[in-house]
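Example record used in the benchmark description.
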Amino acid sequence: MVASSGGHLFELDVLSRAMDVHPDSLWVTFDSPQTRSLLAGRRVLTLPYVAPRDHVGVLRATRALTRVLREERAEAVVSTGAAVAVSGFLAARRSGIPAHYVESVSRTHGPSLTGRIVSGLHLATLWSQHPGWAGGRWHEHPSVMAEYAVVPAEGVPPARPRLFVTVGTIRPYRFDALVDAVLATGLADEHTVWQLGSTTRDDLPGRVVPLLDPAELEDCVRAADVVVTHAGVGSVLGVLEQGVVPVVVPRRAARDEHVDDHQREIAALVADLGVAVVREAGELDAVALRASLGRRVRRTAP
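Model output (structure tokens):
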């Protein structure tokens, strides 16, 4: 099981529940508080970080994984990306091991750069979570987002909701547009918690941290009345897993907030499914934040 830390790993973990993955399987990722917490009790190999479009890092990871697979009795290599997936599949090819690539649910209109590379090099069996573009070499795979539904919440919504804001931690990209939009609503106060990653700020009320450990992040999600998140698939899935309807704001490449605009796709998907309130940064206001109140998320699959 090979995936970059963050959303790719979270998604692979959710998908693995239906894959009958052997409990002694080896998980390959990068070291971080998230990976240490999520994969606690499992066999884990951590590699040096491979950044998006890091060709040298991909080759370095390929050499390391080739050595590892010579010693493993692996029956398959499975990945959801990102660049480290290419390393895993190249090593699998050298070892004669079958490989499977499940494209991220965030790719609603077609494969990512990683997916196109894996397809072009014929490195793995290809799976799409969206029937709209599955076909040819891309087989249809059940979507991780199909596991969630919204139901009414008990109790009366608070007059002044407690906010938790997480803008993602991918380096080196900032997301000041989201932070500024939340500030402009007038609802941020001394009780607000901000997880800002690379978006360093010293002008915010409440508690500001670059990164929360996974257990504390879950506590913050559960303690908040409103959770505002970027449209990273791992962040969105993590909030849904806690039974919370998030307010989702996609990063935009035009503002140098990410490498591309794939977050617009995941935002559109969760909006269509009705499991999130979705706004562009320039559209976010107090009404949008309050729109998530009075509803909860439940899982429809075990």
